[in-house]
Design brief:
The chain is α/β, with parallel strands linked by helices. Helices cover about 25% and strands about 30% of the residues.
Length: about 160
């Protein structure tokens, strides 16, 4: 299968991590719901990579189930900061090297702390962005712990 060679793919190859690539037509604002439908998987197993900033403009990544939202209030409490908010698209692009909708936690341009919803690790397989819109990689969640410095947190609220 042909798939893009992104910084995320290079990062995983350098570490000899096997993954299954999934390429599909990207739909603007389709989000994880669209990805899950196209791949025929539960949206809960799609993991989104989100860029946030604290009130002190410290950037961080949050990995969250596709069908859940991040509770910024809970995350702020866990991190002992006053406020946390999503980074602007422009700032997120600059920090990660990826476009919004194609952000991967692998091969980031800027090193930043990564926080993952702890229940992600209960899943047998996850689908996470491979560094380009319309490109997800399928891996075992333990890979996140093997190749990234991940902090497990409980900061989810059910979507919807």
């Amino acid at each position: 299968m042909n798939y893009p060679v992104t910084p995320a793919v290079r990062f995983l190859r350098e570490r000899k991590i096997d993954f299954a690539p999934h390429v599909f037509d990207y739909v603007e604002r389709g989000g994880t719901k669209h990805s899950a439908e196209v791949l025929g998987v539960n949206e809960h197993s799609i993991v989104k990579t989100l860029v946030f900033e604290t009130n002190e403009r410290k950037a961080l990544i949050v990995l969250q189930h596709g069908d859940f939202q991040v509770s910024t209030k809970e995350l702020g409490r866990i991190l002992a900061v006053k406020t946390i908010a999503p980074a602007s698209a422009e700032r997120a692009n600059k920090l990660t090297g990826y476009l919004i909708g194609g952000t991967s936690p692998f091969g980031l341009k800027t090193k930043m702390p990564i926080y993952a919803e702890k229940t992600i690790f209960d899943l047998p397989r996850i689908y996470i962005n491979g560094g380009k819109r319309g490109f997800l990689i399928e891996i075992a969640p333990r890979v996140l712990e093997q190749v990234l410095e991940v902090n497990k947190v409980a900061a989810a609220t059910k979507d919807g």
